[in-house]
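Below sits my pick:
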Amino acid sequence: MTGKELDDFFEYLARVRGLSENTIRAYRVDLDHFMRFLDHAEVDLTSVDHRLLRSFLANQKARGYSRGTVARRCACLRSFFRYLEETGALASNPASTLSFNLKGRKLPRVLSEFEAQILADNAGKGSKTPSRDRAIIEMLYGTGIRVGELCALCLRDIRLGESAIRVLGKGGVERTVVMGNYAKEALENYIESERGKLARGGNYHGDIVFLGVRGKPINPREVRRVLERESILLGGSKISSPHVLRHTFATHMIARGADLRSVQEMLGHRNVATTQIYTHLDSEAVKRAYGKSHPRA
């Protein structure tokens, strides 16, 4: 397969499938591993069958890659061979039934309600952009949106009167996400007090809500730096990724009685099975509490 054909595939992932830049970057690495595996086995793409794909996944697991990485490479291969079949490059798709069992995967790290309150109550203190940083924390924890969705949020997407925002999620699927009072207040305060100054400083005339210190649209890396700085009060190692606040949002919602379907809708999950991990996470918290509290645990 030529470099151009691979570029066409990645463009398809971006334009048609709506995958994020991070996912596409990871898929490039995944396909590179697979192509090298084929070269070593001296097998052409047209000769790939289901058994060889299973051998590749087993090879990756044996080489010490995490279960999450192998599962992603499995998903990458399903997308890749489906694309080859749809474009006529292959007569059939050998990966149509390919799967990798993620049983036993690590549950996502979450903050306790106490930790989340400390983080939110102290957000922005000591920052050069206190209102913006507080709004970032409150929006990620208060709505559960992905960091990419936060960075892409536009002024026209905000419905303050309805306490809601319009979000364009994975695959270009649009959804409405409710904001709580704290998130709404923090967002409104940032827009009124700081966004204009940042925009003028960078001579920015666009519609993106969250801007960096140079006045240009913020990116996920900058958001991660904000969270790393803000997490100092939590020991500095609690928030390794903005996704921690998304996990925390979902876990706290379910722990306080939110139904699974509502949380699925707010998170933008296509399959409710993806959302169910947070019920397992809450059950783990229950087990820990039982172990600490019951005299005969």
Remarks:
- Residues 100 and 161 are 45 Å apart (CA to CA).
